[in-house]
């Protein structure tokens, strides 16, 4: 079903027309991912269940506060509530720039304070255990190449599954397309290069005439999905007797933590991860501090507890 038709069927036209225009704006002009666009649309439509307005010109800060009260009653997480506020704030700002609203009624509403859980990561030994498997099977060779890239380059899962054959560049580099359709080039480490070479050889040998340009393929000879990568990571975590929940993002977090611990170069880690803001990368300084704090507690005579 066409996305605009889906919106029109759920809310009146005086409300839906602006939502459709906004989603088109963020999809085409801001080039946000389809997943993000759908999430924005879902948040706006969910908010409308509690706003009780006939058109967007009626929207006030009091409406937003009432919506927040309903969100609290529904026991939505702080993260979800703040996301909804951000989406509405951006949506109203869009209508202000189009001169439909004279001001942004969400601008005065503060986001809720939320604790930021530190990202989970594996230590160097645990990462070595996960990646230390040898196999001659097609899937195993592919899996090792995928995991070595996730950890060796610190790329996002969507960046990995989006890779194509021509993204492997000369000079031991790989090209990835990150958030906002931004391109960056990442260095290929020795282990990642070896694993990738084995996979490319296996891929060419088994699928010499395949038109599919995706770098990593499923058993059906189509581009591998995010879910399939997670399933294979679950499989190998059990095979390697790592009794903890590991996600592809865990490998990215481990990459960032280990590079920062060795280099103390926050700006460099920011560039490698593709973070737009340094504040996003700074969470890893907390991890680094925890690591140093543990060393201090064990080593310093004044830190030891009686």
What is the third-level CATH name, the topology of the largest domain? Answer: hpI Integrase, Chain A
Could you state the order of secondary-structure elements as H and E? HHHHHHHHEEEHHHHHH
| Largest sheet: spatial strand order | 1-2-3
The CATH class of the largest domain is Mainly Alpha
Mean pLDDT across every amino acid position: 85
**Strand percent estimate:** under 5%
Low-pLDDT runs of 5+ residues are none
Number of strands: 3
Instruction: Provide the domain count.
Output: 2
Name the shape in a single word: globular
Under the CATH scheme, which architecture of the largest domain would be assigned? Orthogonal Bundle
Brief account:
The protein is built from 14 helices and three strands. It is mostly helical and 306 residues long.
Kindly describe this structure.
The protein has 306 residues and is mainly alpha-helical. The protein folds into 2 domains: 3-97, DNA polymerase, domain 1, CATH 1.10.150; 124-248, hpI Integrase, Chain A (Orthogonal Bundle), CATH 1.10.443.10. It is 59% helix and 4% strand. The protein has 14 helices and 3 strands. It has helices at 3-10, 13-29, 34-51, 61-73, 78-97, 124-131, 138-153, 157-161, 190-206, 226-239, 248-263, 266-273, 278-281, 283-299; strands spanning 168-169, 173-177, 183-187. It has a 3-stranded antiparallel sheet, with no helix packed on it. β2 (173-177) and β3 form a beta hairpin. α1 packs antiparallel against α2, α2 (13-29) packs antiparallel against α3 and α7 crosses α11. The protein is globular and about 65 Å long.
């Amino acid at each position: 079903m066409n996305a605009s038709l889906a919106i029109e069927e759920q809310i009146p036209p005086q409300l839906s027309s602006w939502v459709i225009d906004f989603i088109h704006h963020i999809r085409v002009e801001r080039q946000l991912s389809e997943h993000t666009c759908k999430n924005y649309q879902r948040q706006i439509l969910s908010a409308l269940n509690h706003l009780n307005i006939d058109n967007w010109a009626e929207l006030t800060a009091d409406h937003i506060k009432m919506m927040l009260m309903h969100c609290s009653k529904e026991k939505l997480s702080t993260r979800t509530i703040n996301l909804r506020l951000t989406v509405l704030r951006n949506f109203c700002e869009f209508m202000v720039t189009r001169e439909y609203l004279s001001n942004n009624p969400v601008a005065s509403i503060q986001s809720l304070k939320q604790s930021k859980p530190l990202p989970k990561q594996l230590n160097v030994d645990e990462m070595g255990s996960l990646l230390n498997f040898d196999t001659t099977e097609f899937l195993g060779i592919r899996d090792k190449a995928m995991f070595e890239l996730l950890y060796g380059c610190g790329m996002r899962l969507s960046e990995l599954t989006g890779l194509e054959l021509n993204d492997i560049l000369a000079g031991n580099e790989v090209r990835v397309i990150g958030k906002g359709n931004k391109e960056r080039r990442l260095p290929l480490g020795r282990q990642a290069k070896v694993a990738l070479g084995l996979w490319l050889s296996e891929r060419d040998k088994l699928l010499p005439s395949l038109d599919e340009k995706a770098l990593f393929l499923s058993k059906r000879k189509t581009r591998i999905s995010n879910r399939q990568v997670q399933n294979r990571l679950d499989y190998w975590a059990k095979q390697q007797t790592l009794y903890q929940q590991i996600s592809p993002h865990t490998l990215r977090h481990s990459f960032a933590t280990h590079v920062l611990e060795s280099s103390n170069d926050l700006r460099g880690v920011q560039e490698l991860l593709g973070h737009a803001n340094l504040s996003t990368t700074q969470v890893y300084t907390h991890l680094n501090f925890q690591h140093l704090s543990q060393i201090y507690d064990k080593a310093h005579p004044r830190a030891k507890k009686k």
